[in-house]
Amino acid sequence: MRSAGAVGYPLARLRAPGPAARPRARIYLLSATFCSSVAFGNLGLNYVQLDVAQVVYTTTPLFTLLLSALLLRRRHHPLQYAAMAPVCAGAACSVLGQVRFHQAGCCFLFAATFLRGLKSIQQSLLLQEHGLDAVSLLCLTSLPSFCILFSAAVALEVGPAWAGVLRYDSTLWAYVLLSCLGSVLYNLASFCVLSLTSALTIHVLGNFNVVGNLLLSRLLFGSQLSGLSYVGIGLTLAGMFMYHQPDYIAARWASWHGRDRDKRE
Length: 265
Known about the structure:
This protein is mainly α.
């Protein structure tokens, strides 16, 4: 978050000035939601393996769809609701293996997943309804988020976790810097996608990222995929098609059903 501010503020100065009235309360609430999702996600990873976390995170589109309908009163095509089943189940099957579930850990992860969906809806509102651009929103949320996360780290993690941190060599700090810059670019790209589409679309695409990682792992590193992984890839692709083309599917179904009825008559 600190690197986001360091990169974002110079970029914002090069752009046209944003709106004079900035919804500060909503920006602070967005920062709190983001930090809470990070905290619950880290708590969950204390109890479960990463593959379990990935399985839980695949339900993010479902939470986002429900929150969009409840909070924003947005109406979706019935097939888009139906598409959540193969999108979530397919991504889950793609990463499902020898996993061990832990009740408390899964509760923390589901809380983090819920907050991730809520965060995306808040971002979408600020980008689309309040007229903020991606760079401005990143700058405005970076400082409050940094203060919250840094305060929590100082209060909760000072001690053994920080022992010897200043003795690491320059190579590690170079990798940390690259990671920070990569995070900035990722956040900017996410905000741009949100400004052009919706909170639900970005999480549906996020589940497709699971499929992309599996395929790249197979192509680049020769990883072996199980039959369940291939089933999951197929379900995810089918669900994404249902989500993005509900009108086309409904029209084709109506046309096919009409021809079938004419033949019977």
